[in-house]
Amino acid sequence: MYKVRNQKVVRRLSFRSFTANRTRNIVAILAIALTTILFTTLFTVIISLNYTSQQQTMRMVGGYSHGGFKYLTMEQVEQLSKHPLVKEFGYSVMLAMPDEEPFTKRQVEMRYGTDAAAKMYFSNPTTGTMPREKKEIAMDTAVLDLLGVPYKVGEEITLPYTFEGKEVVDTFTLSGYWESDPVARASEVWLSKEYVLEKLDGYDPSLDNNMFGKWSLDMMFANSKHIEKSLQTIAQDNGYTIDDSSADNFLDYGVNWAYTSTHYENGEQVKMTIALIVGLGFIIFIGYLIIYNIFGISVMNDMHFYGLLKTIGTTKRQIKRIIRYQGLMLSVIGIPIGLCLGYVLGNSFVKIMVSSLSNKTTYVTFNSWIFIGSSFFALLTVMISCSKPGKMAAKVSPIEAVRYSEGSQTSNKRMKKEKKGKHGARIYRMAIANVRRNKGKTVLVIVSLTLSLVLFNTIFSFTKGFSMDRLLDRFVISDYLLGSAKYFQTNLRSDDGDGVSESFISEVESKGYTTRSGRVYQSNGIAQAKFSQDELVEYSARWGGSEYVEYIKSLFASGDNEMFWYIDIYGLDDYPLEKMTLVEGDVSKIEDSTVKGIIQIVGEDDYGNPETESTIKNIGEKLAIHYVDELEYDADNNLIEKKSHDVDYTIVATMMMPNAMSTRSYGSPQFALPSYAYLKDSGNSTTMVYMLDIDDTKIKEMEAFISSYTKNVEKDMDFESKKYMEDEFSNYKNMFLLVGGGVTVVITIIGILNFVNTMLTSIQTRKREFAVLQSIGMTGKQLRKMVMLEGLFYTGAALIMAVMIGSIVNVVVLQSFESMLWFYQYEYSIGAIVALAPVFILLGVGLPAFVYKSMVRKSLVERMRTTD
Question: How confident is the model at residue 101 (pLDDT cuts 50, 70, 90)?
Answer without folding.
Answer: confident
